[in-house]
Amino acid sequence: MDLSKKMIGIIIGSLLIILLAVIFWLKPNTESTETTSTSEKALQQQTGPLTSTQLAASEAQNFASKSQQDTQINCQIRADASNRLIVNEQTKDCFEYFITQYGEKTIEQIKADFLSYTKISYKEPVLSQLNNLWTRYIDYRSKLGDLPAPTADKESAKYYQQILVNTQNLRKKFFSNYEIQGLFGTQDTYDQYTVDRLEIMDNQKLSTAEKAQKLKELFEQLPEDWKENLKQLNQLEDLRKLTAEIKARGGSAEELRQMRTNLVGPEATQRLETLDVQRSDWKGKVNQYLAARDNILKSNLSDSAKQRAVEQLKAQQFANQQEQLRLQTFETVHDQGGKLPFAN
Protein backbone atom coordinates (compact mmCIF):
# COMPACT_ATOMS: atom_id res chain seq x y z
CA MET A 1 0.00 0.00 0.00
CA ASP A 2 1.40 3.35 -0.96
CA LEU A 3 1.61 5.39 2.24
CA SER A 4 2.57 8.77 0.70
CA LYS A 5 -0.49 9.53 -1.41
CA LYS A 6 -1.05 12.84 -3.12
CA MET A 7 -3.44 15.12 -1.23
CA ILE A 8 -6.24 16.96 -2.99
CA GLY A 9 -5.51 20.51 -4.10
CA ILE A 10 -7.67 22.32 -1.59
CA ILE A 11 -5.45 21.11 1.27
CA ILE A 12 -2.05 21.31 -0.48
CA GLY A 13 0.33 23.60 1.37
CA SER A 14 -1.19 23.24 4.83
CA LEU A 15 1.06 22.43 7.73
CA LEU A 16 -1.04 19.38 8.47
CA ILE A 17 -0.25 17.79 5.14
CA ILE A 18 3.49 18.23 5.73
CA LEU A 19 3.14 16.16 8.88
CA LEU A 20 0.91 13.57 7.28
CA ALA A 21 3.32 13.18 4.35
CA VAL A 22 6.21 12.48 6.77
CA ILE A 23 4.18 10.07 8.87
CA PHE A 24 2.81 8.26 5.82
CA TRP A 25 6.50 7.74 4.48
CA LEU A 26 7.51 6.09 7.78
CA LYS A 27 4.30 4.20 8.29
CA PRO A 28 4.68 0.42 8.13
CA ASN A 29 3.28 -1.71 5.38
CA THR A 30 0.13 -3.13 7.07
CA GLU A 31 -3.22 -4.07 5.58
CA SER A 32 -6.47 -5.05 7.27
CA THR A 33 -7.90 -8.24 5.88
CA GLU A 34 -11.56 -9.07 6.39
CA THR A 35 -12.54 -12.74 6.24
CA THR A 36 -15.74 -13.32 4.33
CA SER A 37 -18.01 -15.61 6.33
CA THR A 38 -20.67 -17.89 4.89
CA SER A 39 -23.35 -15.31 5.71
CA GLU A 40 -21.31 -12.58 3.98
CA LYS A 41 -21.02 -14.71 0.85
CA ALA A 42 -24.76 -15.19 0.88
CA LEU A 43 -25.22 -11.43 1.25
CA GLN A 44 -22.92 -10.78 -1.71
CA GLN A 45 -25.12 -13.00 -3.84
CA GLN A 46 -28.12 -10.90 -2.82
CA THR A 47 -26.61 -7.43 -3.08
CA GLY A 48 -24.38 -7.93 -6.11
CA PRO A 49 -20.58 -7.76 -6.48
CA LEU A 50 -18.73 -6.35 -3.49
CA THR A 51 -15.23 -6.14 -4.97
CA SER A 52 -13.89 -4.08 -7.84
CA THR A 53 -12.14 -7.13 -9.30
CA GLN A 54 -15.57 -8.31 -10.43
CA LEU A 55 -16.11 -5.14 -12.45
CA ALA A 56 -15.51 -5.59 -16.18
CA ALA A 57 -12.11 -4.28 -17.22
CA SER A 58 -13.62 -2.06 -19.91
CA GLU A 59 -15.95 -0.46 -17.36
CA ALA A 60 -13.21 -0.07 -14.75
CA GLN A 61 -11.09 1.93 -17.16
CA ASN A 62 -13.85 4.52 -17.41
CA PHE A 63 -13.18 5.49 -13.80
CA ALA A 64 -9.36 5.41 -13.86
CA SER A 65 -7.10 8.35 -14.64
CA LYS A 66 -4.47 8.01 -17.37
CA SER A 67 -1.81 7.12 -14.80
CA GLN A 68 -4.06 4.35 -13.44
CA GLN A 69 -5.04 2.68 -16.71
CA ASP A 70 -3.00 -0.43 -15.97
CA THR A 71 -4.35 -0.81 -12.44
CA GLN A 72 -7.48 -2.31 -10.94
CA ILE A 73 -9.82 -0.11 -8.96
CA ASN A 74 -8.68 -0.60 -5.39
CA CYS A 75 -12.08 -1.13 -3.78
CA GLN A 76 -12.58 -4.22 -1.65
CA ILE A 77 -15.86 -3.34 0.00
CA ARG A 78 -17.55 -5.75 2.40
CA ALA A 79 -20.80 -5.93 4.32
CA ASP A 80 -21.69 -8.02 7.35
CA ALA A 81 -24.60 -10.42 7.77
CA SER A 82 -26.89 -7.51 8.74
CA ASN A 83 -26.24 -5.64 5.48
CA ARG A 84 -24.08 -3.16 7.37
CA LEU A 85 -21.08 -1.71 5.54
CA ILE A 86 -17.81 -2.89 7.07
CA VAL A 87 -15.64 0.20 7.48
CA ASN A 88 -11.92 -0.49 7.50
CA GLU A 89 -8.66 0.54 5.83
CA GLN A 90 -9.79 -1.09 2.60
CA THR A 91 -12.73 1.31 2.56
CA LYS A 92 -10.32 4.19 2.96
CA ASP A 93 -8.09 2.78 0.22
CA CYS A 94 -11.09 2.75 -2.10
CA PHE A 95 -11.77 6.43 -1.44
CA GLU A 96 -8.11 7.35 -1.85
CA TYR A 97 -7.87 5.52 -5.17
CA PHE A 98 -10.30 8.05 -6.60
CA ILE A 99 -8.98 11.07 -4.68
CA THR A 100 -5.43 10.56 -5.92
CA GLN A 101 -6.67 11.22 -9.44
CA TYR A 102 -6.82 14.90 -8.53
CA GLY A 103 -4.69 16.88 -10.95
CA GLU A 104 -5.69 14.65 -13.82
CA LYS A 105 -9.36 15.17 -12.96
CA THR A 106 -11.28 17.88 -11.13
CA ILE A 107 -12.82 17.26 -7.73
CA GLU A 108 -16.28 17.35 -9.25
CA GLN A 109 -15.32 14.76 -11.86
CA ILE A 110 -13.83 12.55 -9.16
CA LYS A 111 -17.05 12.76 -7.14
CA ALA A 112 -19.15 11.95 -10.19
CA ASP A 113 -16.93 9.03 -11.17
CA PHE A 114 -17.10 7.52 -7.70
CA LEU A 115 -20.88 7.69 -7.59
CA SER A 116 -21.13 6.21 -11.09
CA TYR A 117 -18.73 3.43 -10.12
CA THR A 118 -20.63 2.52 -6.95
CA LYS A 119 -23.94 2.55 -8.81
CA ILE A 120 -22.59 -0.09 -11.19
CA SER A 121 -20.76 -2.11 -8.55
CA TYR A 122 -23.02 -2.23 -5.51
CA LYS A 123 -26.68 -2.62 -4.57
CA GLU A 124 -28.77 -1.37 -1.70
CA PRO A 125 -28.40 -1.08 1.21
CA VAL A 126 -24.60 -1.12 0.81
CA LEU A 127 -24.77 1.44 -1.99
CA SER A 128 -26.36 4.17 0.12
CA GLN A 129 -24.13 3.51 3.11
CA LEU A 130 -20.98 3.64 0.99
CA ASN A 131 -21.97 6.81 -0.86
CA ASN A 132 -22.92 8.52 2.38
CA LEU A 133 -19.55 7.69 3.93
CA TRP A 134 -17.78 8.84 0.75
CA THR A 135 -19.52 12.23 0.86
CA ARG A 136 -18.48 12.75 4.46
CA TYR A 137 -14.93 11.59 3.74
CA ILE A 138 -14.57 14.12 0.92
CA ASP A 139 -15.92 16.89 3.19
CA TYR A 140 -13.49 15.83 5.92
CA ARG A 141 -10.55 15.95 3.54
CA SER A 142 -11.54 19.42 2.35
CA LYS A 143 -11.62 20.70 5.93
CA LEU A 144 -8.14 19.49 6.81
CA GLY A 145 -6.61 22.60 5.28
CA ASP A 146 -8.75 24.81 7.55
CA LEU A 147 -7.25 23.45 10.75
CA PRO A 148 -5.43 26.10 12.83
CA ALA A 149 -1.66 26.09 12.75
CA PRO A 150 -0.07 24.73 15.94
CA THR A 151 1.29 27.34 18.33
CA ALA A 152 4.18 25.17 19.55
CA ASP A 153 7.73 25.30 18.22
CA LYS A 154 7.94 23.53 14.87
CA GLU A 155 10.95 21.56 16.05
CA SER A 156 9.15 20.17 19.10
CA ALA A 157 7.03 17.07 19.60
CA LYS A 158 4.23 19.31 20.91
CA TYR A 159 3.91 20.83 17.45
CA TYR A 160 3.07 17.47 15.91
CA GLN A 161 0.96 16.42 18.88
CA GLN A 162 -1.23 19.49 18.34
CA ILE A 163 -1.68 18.59 14.70
CA LEU A 164 -2.64 15.05 15.64
CA VAL A 165 -5.16 16.20 18.25
CA ASN A 166 -6.69 18.77 15.88
CA THR A 167 -7.05 16.14 13.19
CA GLN A 168 -8.66 13.65 15.55
CA ASN A 169 -11.11 16.29 16.78
CA LEU A 170 -12.05 17.12 13.19
CA ARG A 171 -12.80 13.48 12.44
CA LYS A 172 -15.34 13.37 15.27
CA LYS A 173 -17.41 15.95 13.40
CA PHE A 174 -17.77 13.69 10.36
CA PHE A 175 -17.58 10.09 11.53
CA SER A 176 -18.85 7.76 14.23
CA ASN A 177 -16.41 6.10 16.62
CA TYR A 178 -16.78 2.87 14.64
CA GLU A 179 -15.97 4.66 11.39
CA ILE A 180 -13.01 6.50 12.90
CA GLN A 181 -11.52 3.27 14.16
CA GLY A 182 -12.06 1.55 10.82
CA LEU A 183 -10.74 4.35 8.62
CA PHE A 184 -7.95 5.75 10.81
CA GLY A 185 -7.27 3.27 13.63
CA THR A 186 -4.00 1.97 12.25
CA GLN A 187 -2.88 5.42 11.17
CA ASP A 188 -3.65 6.88 14.61
CA THR A 189 -1.65 4.17 16.33
CA TYR A 190 1.39 4.88 14.20
CA ASP A 191 0.98 8.67 14.36
CA GLN A 192 0.87 8.59 18.15
CA TYR A 193 3.87 6.26 18.22
CA THR A 194 5.79 8.73 16.08
CA VAL A 195 4.89 11.65 18.34
CA ASP A 196 5.82 9.65 21.44
CA ARG A 197 9.24 8.91 19.95
CA LEU A 198 9.79 12.61 19.34
CA GLU A 199 8.78 13.42 22.92
CA ILE A 200 11.33 10.97 24.26
CA MET A 201 14.05 12.44 22.07
CA ASP A 202 13.11 15.98 23.14
CA ASN A 203 13.10 15.20 26.87
CA GLN A 204 16.15 16.98 28.25
CA LYS A 205 15.66 15.39 31.67
CA LEU A 206 16.53 11.95 30.32
CA SER A 207 20.02 10.62 29.74
CA THR A 208 20.74 8.97 26.41
CA ALA A 209 20.64 5.57 28.12
CA GLU A 210 17.22 6.39 29.60
CA LYS A 211 15.98 7.60 26.22
CA ALA A 212 17.16 4.36 24.63
CA GLN A 213 15.34 2.31 27.28
CA LYS A 214 12.09 4.24 26.84
CA LEU A 215 12.31 3.98 23.06
CA LYS A 216 12.70 0.23 23.36
CA GLU A 217 9.71 0.00 25.73
CA LEU A 218 7.62 2.12 23.38
CA PHE A 219 8.55 -0.10 20.46
CA GLU A 220 7.53 -3.23 22.39
CA GLN A 221 3.99 -1.83 22.74
CA LEU A 222 3.46 -1.88 18.98
CA PRO A 223 1.40 -4.60 17.28
CA GLU A 224 3.55 -7.62 16.53
CA ASP A 225 3.03 -7.40 12.77
CA TRP A 226 4.51 -3.89 12.77
CA LYS A 227 7.70 -4.65 14.62
CA GLU A 228 9.50 -6.47 11.83
CA ASN A 229 8.87 -3.62 9.39
CA LEU A 230 9.82 -0.87 11.82
CA LYS A 231 12.61 -2.40 13.85
CA GLN A 232 15.55 -1.81 11.55
CA LEU A 233 14.36 1.59 10.31
CA ASN A 234 13.62 3.02 13.75
CA GLN A 235 16.59 1.53 15.53
CA LEU A 236 19.00 2.89 12.95
CA GLU A 237 17.45 6.34 13.22
CA ASP A 238 17.39 6.26 17.02
CA LEU A 239 20.98 5.02 17.17
CA ARG A 240 22.10 7.77 14.82
CA LYS A 241 20.42 10.54 16.82
CA LEU A 242 21.45 9.32 20.25
CA THR A 243 25.03 8.61 19.14
CA ALA A 244 25.26 12.12 17.66
CA GLU A 245 23.93 13.53 20.94
CA ILE A 246 26.59 11.70 22.94
CA LYS A 247 29.42 12.70 20.62
CA ALA A 248 28.29 16.33 20.47
CA ARG A 249 28.92 16.76 24.20
CA GLY A 250 31.95 14.51 24.35
CA GLY A 251 30.26 11.59 26.07
CA SER A 252 32.22 8.57 27.20
CA ALA A 253 32.53 5.17 25.55
CA GLU A 254 30.70 3.69 28.54
CA GLU A 255 27.77 6.02 28.01
CA LEU A 256 27.64 5.04 24.35
CA ARG A 257 27.76 1.35 25.29
CA GLN A 258 24.97 1.71 27.83
CA MET A 259 22.74 3.56 25.36
CA ARG A 260 23.26 0.90 22.72
CA THR A 261 22.68 -1.94 25.17
CA ASN A 262 19.38 -0.43 26.32
CA LEU A 263 18.21 0.17 22.77
CA VAL A 264 19.35 -2.90 20.82
CA GLY A 265 20.65 -5.37 23.41
CA PRO A 266 24.15 -6.63 24.32
CA GLU A 267 24.77 -8.79 21.25
CA ALA A 268 23.97 -6.00 18.79
CA THR A 269 26.03 -3.62 20.92
CA GLN A 270 29.03 -5.92 20.60
CA ARG A 271 28.61 -5.99 16.84
CA LEU A 272 28.37 -2.19 16.76
CA GLU A 273 31.56 -1.87 18.81
CA THR A 274 33.34 -4.21 16.42
CA LEU A 275 32.11 -2.06 13.56
CA ASP A 276 33.39 1.04 15.38
CA VAL A 277 36.87 -0.49 15.50
CA GLN A 278 36.74 -1.40 11.81
CA ARG A 279 35.62 2.12 10.90
CA SER A 280 38.33 3.67 13.06
CA ASP A 281 40.98 1.46 11.47
CA TRP A 282 39.73 2.37 8.00
CA LYS A 283 39.73 6.07 8.81
CA GLY A 284 43.29 5.87 10.12
CA LYS A 285 44.52 3.98 7.05
CA VAL A 286 42.86 6.39 4.63
CA ASN A 287 44.15 9.52 6.37
CA GLN A 288 47.67 8.06 6.57
CA TYR A 289 47.57 7.11 2.89
CA LEU A 290 46.28 10.49 1.74
CA ALA A 291 48.97 12.32 3.74
CA ALA A 292 51.70 10.16 2.20
CA ARG A 293 50.13 10.56 -1.23
CA ASP A 294 50.15 14.35 -0.84
CA ASN A 295 53.87 14.26 -0.04
CA ILE A 296 54.54 12.26 -3.19
CA LEU A 297 52.46 14.55 -5.40
CA LYS A 298 54.24 17.61 -3.96
CA SER A 299 57.71 16.15 -4.50
CA ASN A 300 60.12 16.97 -7.30
CA LEU A 301 59.64 13.60 -8.98
CA SER A 302 58.50 13.41 -12.59
CA ASP A 303 54.79 12.88 -13.21
CA SER A 304 55.37 9.27 -14.23
CA ALA A 305 57.50 8.63 -11.16
CA LYS A 306 54.85 10.19 -8.93
CA GLN A 307 52.21 7.95 -10.44
CA ARG A 308 54.30 4.82 -9.89
CA ALA A 309 55.05 5.83 -6.31
CA VAL A 310 51.38 6.45 -5.55
CA GLU A 311 50.36 3.09 -7.03
CA GLN A 312 53.06 1.35 -5.02
CA LEU A 313 51.92 3.10 -1.84
CA LYS A 314 48.33 2.13 -2.50
CA ALA A 315 49.25 -1.51 -3.13
CA GLN A 316 51.25 -1.64 0.11
CA GLN A 317 48.54 -0.18 2.34
CA PHE A 318 45.44 -1.55 0.57
CA ALA A 319 46.09 -5.05 -0.72
CA ASN A 320 42.36 -5.77 -1.05
CA GLN A 321 41.00 -4.79 -4.47
CA GLN A 322 37.62 -3.79 -3.02
CA GLU A 323 39.37 -1.45 -0.60
CA GLN A 324 41.27 0.13 -3.48
CA LEU A 325 38.03 0.70 -5.37
CA ARG A 326 36.46 2.21 -2.25
CA LEU A 327 39.54 4.38 -1.78
CA GLN A 328 38.99 6.07 -5.13
CA THR A 329 36.01 7.98 -3.72
CA PHE A 330 38.12 9.32 -0.85
CA GLU A 331 40.90 10.36 -3.23
CA THR A 332 38.45 12.27 -5.41
CA VAL A 333 36.78 14.04 -2.50
CA HIS A 334 40.16 14.82 -0.92
CA ASP A 335 41.54 16.31 -4.15
CA GLN A 336 38.42 18.49 -4.46
CA GLY A 337 38.82 19.77 -0.92
CA GLY A 338 35.61 18.15 0.35
CA LYS A 339 34.80 16.44 3.62
CA LEU A 340 35.82 12.81 3.55
CA PRO A 341 32.77 10.49 3.60
CA PHE A 342 33.62 8.44 6.67
CA ALA A 343 30.71 6.64 8.30
CA ASN A 344 29.75 8.04 11.70
The stretches of 5 or more residues where confidence is low (pLDDT under 50) are 1-54
Q: Give the mean pLDDT.
A: 80
Count of helical regions: 14
CA-atom Rg in angstroms: 28 Å
Main sheet record: 2 strands, antiparallel
Portion in beta strands: under 5%
The strands making up the biggest β-sheet line up spatially as: 1-2
Structural class: mainly alpha
**Coarse morphology:** elongated
| First-residue to last-residue Cα separation | 33 Å
SSE series: HHHEEHHHHHHHHHHH
Give the number of DSSP strands: 2
Share of residues in helices: 55-70%
Domain count: 3
Report on this structure.
This protein has 344 residues and is mainly alpha-helical. The chain folds into three domains: 141 residues, no CATH class; 62 residues, no CATH class; 52 residues, no CATH class. Strands 1-2 form a two-stranded antiparallel sheet. Strand 1 and strand 2 form a beta hairpin. Helix 9 packs parallel to helix 11, helix 10 runs antiparallel to helix 11 and helix 12 runs antiparallel to helix 13. It is elongated, with a radius of gyration of 28 Å. The protein starts with 14 loop residues before the first helix and ends in a 9-residue tail after the last helix. The N terminus is likely disordered.
Topology:
Layout: H1 15-26, H2 38-47, H3 57-60, E1 78-79, E2 85-86, H4 89-99, H5 107-121, H6 126-143, H7 157-172, H8 177-202, H9 208-220, H10 224-248, H11 253-264, H12 266-297, H13 303-317, H14 321-335
Antiparallel strand pairs: 1-2
